[in-house]
Specification:
Number of helices: 6
Strand content: 25-35%
Distance between the termini: 47 Å
Radius of gyration: 21 Å
Order of helices and strands: EEEHHEEHEEEEEHHHEEEEEEEEE
Helix content: 10-25%
Shape: globular
Number of strands: 19
């Protein structure tokens, strides 16, 4: 079988104070490799099986990188059940680790586990395994690997992965794990304020092998994403849930030119600053929402729906209105709670999903109910303009050309919102 094509994907460029930060990462089109070899448990979850939801399971053309469609292509890590994340702390002879390796581990755990448990409503049992409790010293200087922003998979990363495998193989059986985290000593490479090197290889069956299986889903975390605002101790871990979500098949939602079409409404858009969750569309895609929690609006006419807060388990979470087999509108209710610390205007979030758009090119667009308002948040490192994008009672979104209207009717005493959807 031919190896997957390798591509470079650019992470979002955002402003931290007056500093523009560009993060680039590397991904591939989907392959068939995993760290685990069990074909029953490896790979993405099965799509929704309800026939009524089939029209809403949009899918893009062949070759779209990290497509938003359902089902997720094969080759990515499982997103439900128990997964085991092998985590290694790595340093180099020219940049020895500062502090203890366990201290570096503690920057990300247990908060990464807690984030996934909350976001998935317990559907994902994320277990970190760190069998080597000290810095794993690489045989070459950091500079010898040629790690640069957007560096291709070969040759630098191939050498690095091979050296990591050689250094750890006597104590690690790579076949036992679903994904790999490499926590690099943060003094290796430039400051994250200048260049964020954190990258993820996702679904890459052409990756170097260990114990007979390719290192197909691996996240590499470098310098601390710390802007000096004092928030790192609370929010710095969030780069890892972002990167790990790529191993589950989720794309970047920011654009390569530094734009943000989603703002702080999904961790795949902004992973700096205050905590934020995933969109309901992503939760359905990952298998964290049951079919009964999704409504698919296909027929003409007007229907009313009750939508429950995304942070609360149970109840309807997603209403989707397909425009074609490749795109559609989604609506959900976002409130301040769970993983959503930055929500300053609770309400109905409306966005468009396009499964024909590559990662990093804006596959999802949030519609702003209050355009050019400046937003309502003052949280550090949160894109302000879209922070008040949600729709409230009396407000409506209309796509005249498509004949779609979404109106917010009101809020009940339980905190649920009532919406009316019309298709002409």
């Amino acid at each position: 079988m031919l190896p997957s094509r390798r591509r470079i994907r650019s992470r979002r460029a955002m402003s931290l104070a007056s500093v523009a930060v560009l993060t680039l990462a590397i991904a591939t089109s989907a392959g068939a490799g995993h760290l685990l070899t069990d074909p029953v448990t490896a790979g993405p979850i099965a799509p929704g099986r309800s026939a009524a939801l089939s029209p809403c399971m949009i899918h893009g053309r062949a070759g779209v990188q990290m497509p938003e469609g359902i089902p997720t292509p094969t080759g990515y890590a499982r997103s439900t059940g128990t997964i085991h994340a092998l985590t290694l702390m790595v340093d180099f002879p020219d940049v020895p680790g500062r502090g203890s390796a366990l201290g570096r581990l503690a920057e990300f755990f247990p908060r990464t586990q807690q984030w996934f448990a909350t976001s998935s409503y317990g559907h994902l049992d994320y277990r970190v395994v760190a069998p080597i409790r000290h810095w794993l010293r690489m045989p070459r200087p950091f500079t010898a690997y040629g790690m640069e922003r957007g560096a291709p998979f070969d040759p630098g990363y191939r050498r690095l992965i091979q050296d990591i495998v050689a250094a750890a193989d006597s104590r690690v059986d790579f076949r036992r794990y679903d994904l790999l985290n490499v926590l690099v000593t943060p003094n290796a490479g430039p400051s994250a304020l200048d260049t964020v090197l954190s990258v993820t290889f996702a679904g890459n069956r052409a990756a170097p092998a260990a114990d007979g299986v390719p290192i197909a889903n691996a996240s590499f975390i470098y310098s601390r994403q710390d802007d000096g605002s004092g928030s790192y101790s609370r929010t710095g871990y969030r780069v890892l849930p972002h990167e790990n979500s790529h191993t589950f098949g989720l794309p970047d939602l920011y654009t390569q030119d530094g734009g943000t079409a989603v703002g702080h409404w999904d961790i795949m858009s902004e992973d700096w600053g205050a905590d934020n969750d995933l969109l309901a569309w992503h939760k359905w895609k990952l298998g964290w929402l049951e079919d009964s929690q999704v409504s698919c609006v296909t027929g003409r006419g007007t229907r009313e729906y009750t939508v429950t807060p995304l942070e609360r388990p149970g109840g309807r979470k997603l209403v989707f209105i397909p425009l074609s087999t490749k795109a559609g509108y989604a609506l959900e209710l976002r409130t301040h709670g769970g993983n959503d610390d930055a929500v300053c205007r609770p309400g109905i979030l409306i966005y468009r999903v396009d499964s024909n758009v590559d990662t990093g090119n804006g596959p999802i667009t949030v519609y702003d109910s209050e355009p050019d308002s400046g937003g309502c948040t003052r949280s550090p490192n949160v894109q302000a303009e879209l922070s008040d994008a949600t729709y409230r009672a009396g407000q409506a979104f209309t796509d005249t050309k498509a004949g779609i209207s979404i109106g917010v009717l009101g809020k009940d005493l339980s905190g649920n919102y009532h919406v009316r959807v019309t298709r002409r």
